[in-house]
Amino acid sequence: MAVKWGTLSRFILTVVAIVGVPTCTLFVKRADGTYDWRWFGGQIFFVLLAAGVPAYAAWRRKRTEISDLTRSRLHLSFTLNPVLRRIVRRTVEDPAALRNEIRAIVVRAAADIVGPGLMTRSCYFELVEVTAQPAQAAPLKQLVLEEQAGRADPVLSEFTSATPRGADAIKLVMTDGQVRCRDVIKEPLPHWADDGDQTYKTFISVAVVGHGTAYGMLTVDAPKAGDLDKRDVYLLRAMAGLIAVANTIAQVVPGAGQQ
Q1: Which of 24, 25, 221, 227 has the most beta carbons within 10 angstroms of its beta carbon?
Q2: CA distance 104 to 100
Q3: Are residues 109 and 174 part of one domain?
Q4: How far apart are CA 242 and CA 80, in angstroms?
Q5: What is the pLDDT of residues 185-215, one digit of tens each?
Q6: How far apart are CA 244 and CA 140, in angstroms?
Q7: Which residue has the higher pLDDT, 212 or 98?
Q8: 88 assigned to some structural domain
Q9: Which UniProt keywords are present, listed alphabetically (predicted)?
Q10: Do 14 and 135 belong to one domain?
C-alpha cells in the first residue's frame, strides 16, 4: 500500500522531534558547568516541533472537511439550478414530459456527484401496486426499477411487500424514511441483505415523497465499504425532493399525467 507523503512526513518530523529533545538536553550543559544556549534553543525548537506537527495535522483535517462540505454544496447547486429551470420551463411548455426528464437528470446527477464518483451507481425504484391474487387480501406493493445510472453492473435487488426485505423498503418509502449501510458485509441491516451476488458494499436509500404521496425510492451504492457518509445522505435527500416535485407537478397540472 502506498503511503501518502503527508502521513510519512508527519511521522518523520515527529520522530525527529522526539529524538531531538533529549539529544539537545545532553549537550546543553558544557563540561565546565556553563550552558550552551544554542543547544538550549534547539531544545525549544524540537519541543515546538513536537507540539506543532499534530496541531498542523488537525488543521489540515479541518480544512479538508470544510473543502468537502463546500464541494458538496457546489455539487448540489450545480444540480439544482438546471433542474429547477427545467421544471419551470416544462411546467409551462410540456408538463407531461416533466416527470421522466427530471427523473433521468437527477439519477444521472446522483451517480456523478454522490459518493466516490466513477464507481457509484444510482437507481430509482417506482412504487406500484400489483393486482391481488384471489387468495390475497390486499394488492401487493412493489418497488420497480425505472432508472439507473453510473456503474453498469446489473441491478439484482427486488422489492415486494411479500418479503421481509421488500416490506422494509416499502415501509421506508411510505414513512418518508432513509437508511445508510456503511458495510453490507460487516454491518448488515436486518432484512436488507442481498443473496451475496451484489457488487456493492455500501448503500444509501431515501424515500421520494411529495405532497403526501409516496412515489418511490432513490438509492446510491458503491463497491467499497465506507465510501458513502452522512453528507451523502443529505445530498441524496435533496435530489429525491427534486423527483418528488416533478412527480407532484405531473399529477396536479391538468393534462400532465397523460404521458
Answers
A1: 221
A2: 6
A3: yes
A4: 8
A5: 899 888 776 655 678 899 999 999 988 899 9
A6: 22
A7: 212
A8: no
A9: Membrane, Transmembrane, Transmembrane helix
A10: no
The half-sphere exposure of 205 on its side-chain side, counting CA atoms within 13 A, is 24
Under 8 Å CB-to-CB from 11, ≥6 apart: which residues?
Answer: none
Residue whose C-alpha cell reads 550543559 in the numeric block: 29
For residue 1, what pLDDT band results from cuts at 50, 70 and 90? very low
Cell output for 95: 408538463
Give the integer Cα–Cα distance in Å for 77 and 180: 23
- Verify that 113 and 217 share a domain, yes or no: yes
Burial environment of residue 132 by CB neighbours within 10 A (0 to 12, 13 to 18, 19 or more): exposed
* Torsion region of 159: left, alpha or beta (phi above 0 gives left; psi -120 to 50 gives alpha): beta
- The residue with greater pLDDT, 1 or 228, is 228
Same domain, 36 and 99: no
DSSP secondary structure letter of residue 29: B
Question: Is residue 205 in some structural domain?
Answer: yes
Quick one: CA dihedral 102, 104, 106, 112, positive or negative? negative
User: Has residue 140 been placed in a domain?
Assistant: yes
Q: Show Cβ contacts of residue 36 under 8 Å, excluding neighbours closer than 6 positions.
A: 27, 28, 29, 30
Nine cell digits for residue 148: 439507473
The answer to whether residues 256 and 250 touch, using CB atoms and an 8 Å cutoff, is yes
- Cell 437507481 sits on residue: 123
Paired residues of 213 in beta bridges: 210
Residue 132 is classified by DSSP as P
Same domain? For 98 and 21 the reply is: no
> From its phi and psi, is residue 209 left (phi > 0), alpha (psi between -120 and 50) or beta?
beta
